[in-house]
Amino acid sequence: MDExxxxxxxxxxxxxxxxxxxxxxxxxNKLANMAGISQSYLRDVELGNKNPTIEILYLICQxxxxxxxxxxxDRNSELISEDPLIQRIYQLSPQQKAALLAFLKTI
Length: 107
Description:
By secondary structure, this protein is mainly α. Helix content is about 70%, strand content about 0%.
C-alpha cells in the first residue's frame, strides 16, 4: 500500500454519529442538547453537509458515552451491529452499566 494513502473509515463521520445515536435510541434533538450544539448543526453533520471540528466531535462522543478512539474504531460498529447483547449493553446508561457489572461479579 502506498504510504501516502490512508485507509478510509468505513462510514463517513456523519453516518457514524447517526449510527451510534440510533444504537443508543437517542433523537437528534436530545443528542444535540446533550452535546451543547444546535440540532440543525448536528443534522447537517449527520447528512454530510458539514464536518465537525475535533472539539465538537469530542462533545458528541461524550454525550454518546464513547471515546474518540471507540468512535473511529470500525470494529466497534461491527460488534454492536452483530451482537444483540452488546447492542443492549451499549444502550445502557453509565449507572445501569455499573449495576450490570456489579451483578455479573456476583455470578
